[in-house]
Amino acid sequence: MYATYLRLDIFVWDSDRTVIRAARGRLARTARCDPAKRDARKQFYRDMLRHHADAQRLARHFRL
Q: Tell me: the pLDDT tens digits for 16-35?
């Protein structure tokens, strides 16, 4: 999943909303609308936000 996060083309200082919008654009149209895949979508968004928070934490730590 980290590789997918890297392909979102976002900056480390972007907001969580920007991350969700970029991640939504990476999903197939059928996956975005299917109620049966709702839990998988939520988990995907949570993973992207977790990777984003980790990237922000690293940037703060190393003062990038």
A: 999 999 999 999 999 999 99
Residue 23 near residue 8, CB atoms below 8 Å:
yes
Is 19 buried (19+), middle (13-18) or exposed (0-12) by CB count in 10 A? buried
What's the distance, CA 43 to chain centroid? 10
Q: What is the Cα Rg of the chain in Å?
A: 13
Q: By three-state DSSP, how is residue 64 classified?
A: coil
Predicted confidence (pLDDT) per residue in 51-60, tens digit = 999 999 999 9
Give the pair of three-digit tokens for residue 36.
């049966």
Q: Using CA atoms, how far apart are residues 41 and 60, in angstroms rounded to an integer?
A: 29
